[in-house]
Amino acid sequence: MAEQFASEGKHEALEADIERLTEEIGKHRERPEAQSLSGEELVKQSLKSMTGPPPQHKGSAPKEEAAGPLPQYAQTAPAGAKLEIEHLLDMAFHAGIEKASAEARKSSPFVLDAFHDALAGRLYPELKRRGILK
């Protein structure tokens, strides 16, 4: 994972987004209700703040950990949904989180939630490595 970020010039948009995300994490840490959040949940909340409120929908996908780039609950999704989430992840790393989030908003609530969860899962170890999260 670290080598993914270490490549000079490859992820300029992502590096700028990580700086903005670091600021959002700092803002969220100051809130009393954030004291009980795990590091990954703090990243998810900060990503959602950074990219604006999600479209209104009822329910949320269950939270489970996955071995791959997709959350566990998305592993059994239709192939098209999985490909879309992976495409959005790639877009976030190469074109920026905001652009990928805007594209994700055009999709189903499931894809949007899974994208945010997968992105938080991918960014969490890097933010921890950089000392942004403990």
What coarse outline follows from CA principal-axis ratios? globular
Number of helices: 6
Question: What is the H-and-E element order?
Answer: HHHHHH
Structural class: mainly alpha
* Beta-strand proportion: under 5%
Give the termini distance in whole angstroms.
17 Å
Biased composition (Basic and acidic residues): 8-33
Region (Disordered): 1-78
Description:
Residues 1-78 are annotated as: Disordered. Residues 8-33 have a biased composition (Basic and acidic residues). This protein is an all-alpha fold and 134 residues long. It has one domain. It is built from six helices and no strands. The longest helix has 21 residues, at 109-129. It is globular. The chain starts with a helix and ends in a 5-residue tail after the last helix.
Task: Please supply descriptive tags for the structure shown above.
134 residues, mainly alpha, globular
Write the layout of secondary structure elements.
Layout: H1 2-6, H2 12-29, H3 39-51, H4 79-95, H5 97-105, H6 109-129
Helix pairs in contact: 2-3, 3-6, 4-5, 4-6
Region (Disordered): 1-78
Biased composition (Basic and acidic residues): 8-33
